[in-house]
Amino acid sequence: MRRDMDFGEMGDVEGALRAEGVGLAPISTGDASLVAGGVTVLATATASDIAEGRLKGLIVPGGAQDATGLAAVRALIDLARANQLPVIAFADGVHVAADRFGVAAQAPGALFNGEQVQLVNARPDLAAVVAAL
User: Which of these, 34, 57, 79, 120, is most buried using a 10 Å CB contact count?
Assistant: First the structure.
C-alpha cells in the first residue's frame, strides 16, 4: 500500500482484479495501516509472504514518492523478481518497476514477468493480462 495509492487512467482496479479471480492481500510500505478514500486499510501480508511462496504476485500502485516508502516499494519489487513472481504496476509504479527490472515501459499499467513486459493500456488489457497468468 502506498500513501495516496494511484491506479492512474485505470481507475480503481480492485474490482477488475477480483473479477479475474485475484485475491488481494495488502502489504504496507510504511504505516501499519493506511486511510484510502476514507477507509482504513490494514496490511494483511508481509515481505516474508513473498519470500516464503504464499503470494503469487505483486501489485504496485502509483503513490506518494517519499524516500522511505519508495525504498520499501523497490525492495518489494526486487523480492518479487528474485522469487520469479509477476509484478503488475500502475501509474508511476510502472516507472519504478521498469527501473527495477532494467527495462523501458511507459503505459497506464504493465505486467513484468521474468524478462518480459506486457503493457496495459486499458481495462480490457488488464483482464487479458491477469487471465493469462
Answer: 120
The C-alpha atoms of residue 119 and residue 76 are separated, in whole angstroms, by 20
Q: How confident is the model at residue 27 (pLDDT cuts 50, 70, 90)?
A: confident
DSSP type of residue 6: B
Cα 4 from Cα 117, distance rounded (Å)? 25
DSSP string, 52-87: TT--S-EEE-B----HHHHHHHHHHHHHHHHTT--E
Of 81, 63, 85, residue with least CA distance to 7: 63
Task: Report the interhelical angle of 92-101 vs 67-82 (nearest 10°).
Answer: 50
Q: What is the pLDDT of residues 38-78, one digit of tens each?
A: 777 777 888 899 999 999 999 999 886 788 888 989 999 99
pLDDT at 14: 84
* Separation CA 122–CA 88 (nearest Å): 13
